[in-house]
Specification:
With 148 residues, this protein is α/β, with parallel strands linked by helices. The protein folds into two domains: 2-37, no CATH class; 42-143, Rhodanese-like domain (Oxidized Rhodanese, domain 1, 3-Layer(aba) Sandwich). The protein is built from six helices and ten strands, in the order αββββαβαββαβαβαβ. It has helices at residues 2-16, 47-53, 67-72, 86-92, 109-119, 131-137; strands spanning 19-23, 26-29, 35-37, 43-44, 60-63, 74-75, 79-80, 98-101, 125-128, 142-143. The strands form three sheets. The protein has a five-stranded parallel β-sheet, sandwiched between helices. Strands 1-2-3 form a three-stranded antiparallel β-sheet, covered by helices on one side. Strand 8, helix 5 and strand 9 (125-128) form a beta-alpha-beta unit. The longest helix is centred in the first third of the chain and has 15 residues, at 2-16. The protein is globular and about 35 Å long.
């Protein structure tokens, strides 16, 4: 399914003369004022959903921000996307729910990491769009320290 979606996007880009920009999960094409929203590739979850999901055994929350931000502070229990290699990728395929967050709602970080996981056959990906900004604004538990 994801492969067909990529093909559709690439063919459309060739037909209309290329891509003007990719931002906020939207691809905008040049010669036509046409857009494709990439968000439907993932289920999105609210803050209340995240709070429920992270309490259930086996679910994982992934910080898609760069390693320096993660090392400074991150959602309690989150792992950094920077440490996800082939060995961890194989284990992620068995996780019931992977919740990915970035810095804020229009962050490209969570989309980048989500697409990488899909490309490696990982399913059950959920995007917490409001991410770090909302988490901090609500004064929810955080951790400081190097990548897990």
């Amino acid at each position: 399914m994801i492969f067909k979606y990529y093909i559709k996007v690439l063919v459309k880009a060739l037909l209309v003369g290329g891509i003007v920009y990719y931002n906020q999960n939207i691809i905008k094409f040049c010669s036509k004022n046409e857009e494709i929203n990439l968000t439907p590739l993932f289920d999105t979850v609210s803050l209340s959903d995240v709070l429920v999901l992270i309490q259930k055994p086996g679910n994982i929350i992934i910080d898609a921000r760069n390693k320096q931000f993660y090392d400074y502070s991150h959602i309690q229990g989150a792992i950094s996307s920077a440490v996800i290699g082939p060995d961890i990728m194989a284990r992620l395929k068995k996780i019931p729910n992977l919740i990915i967050y970035g810095n804020e709602e229009n962050s490209d970080d969570y989309m980048r990491v989500g697409l990488q996981l899909i490309d490696h056959g990982v399913k059950n990906i959920k995007i917490y769009r409001e991410g770090w900004t909302q988490w901090r604004a609500c004064n929810l538990p955080i951790e400081r320290g190097a990548s897990k």
